């Protein structure tokens, strides 16, 4: 099997964004998270009372703020990629700024949420639900911060490298991963924050 | 060293991988009754003796075998490191990450195997509390030093993905290696839980971790490494990304 094709047909095409490597990484990352989700669901069925009572202590509103921040950041990132394809460098820069700012909203919101939990004496060792809560959201948080580091790099290098094909592929790859991080949260939010509302 | 001798050494080292797997499954898993391991965090010392060490005296023999065969992981890792050359034929930092992780992981099996063998052999002659202490200590070392193997898997995975000229191992295997290395992180919870998926014999920290490590990492790299060492020298050079010689 060839190792990361040297040519990337349509790497800047809307129909085939990104390179094969990032798609492989996203797929495998998705499998790991889905395994976590599966084990979570299994434990929820084993300990329904603990999970339901613990979910009372999460704020769906806080989760909703995180969701909206990520969704709009993802939209801004898509705008940045589209603008770059159209050689609208200033617009791409502006969109990247918004993507980063909204990502920062997610991070700050999450840190306040964690701080609130620790302040109430809730830790990953409190019970099974909170073990999963901190593990799943913590891993997701690491994905968010890691991707934002790459997004920052892209924003910094935009002025210098915008015309290069390698930069465009890089931005597409980062954008793809940011959308993946967003999609992950769309599973995490209802699973952790909302299922209590429907019992 | 003659070329044919070099090839023979490489092939012998490559086969220490499958031997390691078979030996661990048999001696560590079956003979030492670790499929799954006893949930010692939820047991009193007397329960650990009654339900494990006292009940299965063959654990001592099994664990001494683990201490011996465990080092085959190191020999296999040494071969992998020697294969992980960059485009200039040099061993870089990723090779050394893989090598150091492989050496220490082999040491883990040897060291913890010896400790568990001691627990088995001393059962009935010393205080059960001391047996449990040593047993627990060995498991903390075995599980909570996961980063040793994670470092190896990242070194190997990054080389697989970033060295675009090599065709020994496909890129997806490198991504898998890094993903599985990351999935080890919940092992940090093992000392603190007495039930559930993150307990020592839990769904995640035992079944998922060990099976993915075995089948999606070690088995995969074993396969491609064995394929590689049976290639001709010229084919090996080309698989590493070097131009064909005239």
Topology summary:
The complex is a heterodimer of chains A (about 200) and B (about 250).
Chain A: H1 20-46, H2 48-55, H3 60-85, H4 89-119, H5 128-161, H6 165-194
Helix pairs in contact in A: 1-2, 1-5, 1-6, 3-4, 3-6, 4-5, 5-6
Chain B: H1 3-31, H2 45-53, H3 59-69, H4 72-83, H5 93-122, H6 128-144, H7 147-162, H8 171-183, H9 203-229, H10 233-239
Quick structural overview:
The complex is a heterodimer of chains A (199) and B (246). Chain A has 199 residues and is mostly helical.
Proportion in helices of chain A: over 70%
CATH class descriptor name of chain A = Mainly Alpha
CATH topology value of chain A? Four Helix Bundle (Hemerythrin (Met), subunit A)
Number of strands of chain A: 0
What string gives the helices and strands of chain A in order? HHHHHH
Kindly report the oligomeric state of this protein: heterodimer
Poorly predicted segments of chain B? none
Number of domains of chain A: 1
| CATH architecture descriptor name of chain A | Up-down Bundle
The CATH homology group name of chain A: Cytochrome c oxidase, subunit III, four-helix bundle
The value of Rg of chain A in angstroms is: 19 Å
Mean of pLDDT of chain B? 94
- Biggest protein-protein contact in the assembly: A-B, 24 and 27 residues
